[in-house]
Amino acid sequence: MLVFLNGQIIKEEDAKISISDLSYQFGYGLFETIRCEKGIPVFLEDHYRRLTHSAKEIGMPFPVEIDEIKSWVKDILQKNNLQNARLKIIISKRMESGGEKFNVLITAMPLDSLPQSYSLLSYKLGRDFNSISFKHKTTSRADSYFAYKQAIESGFNDVIYLNEKNELIECSRANIFLLMEDKIITSLLETGILSGVTRSKVLEIAKKDSIPIEEKNINSLFLKVAKGAFITNAIVGIMPVSKIKLEDKEYSFQTGLQIINFKNAYRQKLEEYLKRKNSELVSRS
Description:
Structural class: alpha+beta
């Protein structure tokens, strides 16, 4: 695999970052994971906006414009001969005698095939609502990686975090939605969850189609009456949840028509984005 690192495209094994890099020493870095289709990074503007906002919030603003990232992404996809890919952009800082400098790493991997639905294993995780490690996509992800690893080893696709109040928060790499009798509910941003790009698209779809949706604290007791569940992230889009294991209890769900309609609406939004971006590329050429 070829990777982009600080202006160069090189072999993965040749990519070297100094031990003075603060993401290595303290987990002080940021990343974005983006789905690419037909050579186009999907909703790149939203990801870039979140990245620059997070950088500002944690005091790590970086001098990288979106057009630069577009050019680098195009190059790394072409060099790896990929059209459909899982793209990862990592921004970190290193301290040198000449002052602060940045590392920019971009990797591109083929997209994995996805299952029809996900199963989730609950995981208790005490967390500060204001912690930058959870509100932003920082490279400080030891808790998340450990929990995710446990879920995979137990035969599940991901974990669902529970806080000290026994409330559902989010997954290790996705936001969650529950379908209730009269509305859809999802966790509040104020609980310290990541403001997911795909999550925001679901909220837009619900608003446009006049579907009742509410951001609120979600006690685990809601699982007893939920009619369905799905998770969202940039790679899976909208993924139905078929099972959630909560300590000694297990809840099963069907992929109903409402989830299918959401998946179709999201896919339409994605296709419209690809069409628009492709038209822009054609008009420039």
